[in-house]
Design brief:
The structure is a single chain. A hairpin with a 2-residue loop joins strand 6 and strand 7. The protein is mostly helical and 433 residues long. Helices cover 45% and strands 5% of the residues.
Length: 433
């Protein structure tokens, strides 16, 4: 039985013990509801599409062979503020908008355009020249094949008749317009290809638009028939002559050679009911839809050309972009990238050509005034800066694709050499992936 002492030590049930809670409550942390973090804002605004000016009166133009005019940072500043800069943005973005929410096959139902058919025939004629100028044996080398120069020389000889077929009337106009086509397939001296050469193809189409040969009604077919045909042609040229990527970083982790297919392709998929940016990792989607959508076709071909399996290892930015919420975000990002990484890079734009249809701004330098040889006569063709003693090549370390003199072997060449050895299906997997 409990003793009296034991009973005395127990608190009485009728008298609850008073607890001073004020001291303990002061020590408790104040509960503050979490606020949702504001979405990160891209500091670069989405570039709009400037209005496309009407075609020019060719009778008032003085046609001449296009030359480089961006020979210094000051020249680039003049170009960036010029109507020509807006003209380029307007044309490229208008082509991208013309592809919005359309399958490639849907454009076959459009009214037939004689100009489009002639453009496709020109590209077919270029592909025939590839067959007529086979690569020389280089003993397994993955660097550019010198037969590429014979290919370009043959194009220069035959392109005059192609432009007459396109209804480019005067000889001087043919010289100007055809120069952009000649520079659409790569650099003759370096045997390389990059986004600058792709831009030259756009400028070739722009010149034809300025001459009223390609009105805006043809833009959907330009984006979804002519441009994909050009990309397929370039794949054959790249794999035949082992064209080296122009620059040592690829096109920002998207593709070793091309950029614009991703802009046009993102526009195609803007409101697709079930294909999402993340779908590029689904091989079944790539296989079933790649023939209809440029973006998916580019991913499919990029993966096939690599000897390492996995986009995050071979095309890291393309892998990152797949996490975007929707295709609108992707398309907006591609617009920003075109402005910043193509038109905004002096190492790319220093090779840009200006004529009468794509005119330079007043005050921009001229090659002859500075004693600079045309680019085709410069074996290295590196970046140009104006100094007191003339124009010199400078090795840059602060920009993409900075040094034109660095030779980068082609991954396409590696794939082709593997096929010759019967190793085309042997992907190398990254450990722990």
């Amino acid at each position: 039985m409990p003793t009296a002492i034991d009973n005395a030590s127990l608190p009485s049930r009728s008298k609850p013990v008073d607890i001073d809670k004020s001291h303990n409550l002061d020590r408790l942390p104040r509960l503050v509801p979490r606020k949702k973090a504001p979405p990160q804002q891209n500091p670069l605004p989405v570039p709009p599409t400037p209005p496309l000016p009407p075609p020019v009166d060719s009778q008032k133009l003085h046609f001449h062979k296009p030359t480089r005019r961006i020979l210094s940072p000051h020249d680039y500043e003049l170009f960036e503020a010029s109507p020509t800069y807006s003209l380029i943005l307007s044309f490229v973005f208008s082509l991208s908008q013309a592809a919005a929410d359309k399958k490639i096959s849907s454009t076959y139902q459009d009214d037939a355009s004689d100009a489009i058919e002639k453009l496709l025939s020109v590209l077919s004629a270029v592909e025939e020249i590839v067959t007529r100028c086979p690569p020389v044996d280089q003993g397994g080398s993955r660097f550019g094949n010198p037969s590429f120069r014979d290919f370009l020389d043959t194009i220069a000889v035959e392109s005059s008749s192609w432009h007459s077929l396109l209804n480019v009337q005067s000889d001087h106009a043919i010289v100007e317009v055809s120069t952009y086509l000649h520079n659409s397939f790569g650099n003759r001296a370096r045997i390389d290809y990059g986004s600058g050469h792709e831009l030259n193809f756009m400028m070739w189409l722009l010149c034809l638009n300025r001459l009223s040969i390609l009105p805006q009604s043809t833009f959907p077919r330009l984006s979804l028939q002519v441009f994909p045909r050009y990309i397929r042609l370039m794949r054959r040229i790249q794999s035949t002559y082992y064209l080296e990527p122009a620059g040592s970083h690829g096109v920002w982790g998207l593709d070793d050679y091309h950029f614009l297919p991703f802009l046009f392709g993102a526009s195609q998929l803007l409101n697709h009911p079930y294909i999402r940016p993340l779908s590029i990792h689904n091989e079944l989607v790539l296989e079933e839809e790649g023939d209809e959508y440029i973006y998916l076709d580019m991913v499919r071909e990029t993966m096939a050309s690599k000897s390492v399996k996995g986009l995050k290892w071979t095309q890291p930015m393309l892998d990152d972009i797949s996490g975007a919420r929707n295709w609108e975000k992707v398309e907006q990002g591609m617009r920003r990238m075109f402005v910043k990484e193509v038109l905004g890079k002096l190492p790319v734009m220093q090779h840009f050509l200006f004529g009468s249809l794509v005119p330079a701004a007043e005050g921009m330098s001229r090659e002859e005034e500075l004693g600079v040889n045309p680019e085709e006569k410069e074996p290295e063709g590196g970046e140009m800066v104006v100094a007191q003693d003339g124009v010199k090549h400078v090795h840059r370390s602060d920009a993409w694709g900075d040094c034109c003199g660095i030779k980068i072997p082609s991954t396409v060449a590696a794939t082709q050499e593997a096929k010759k050895k019967g190793e085309e299906d042997s992907f190398r997997r990254i450990p722990f992936d």
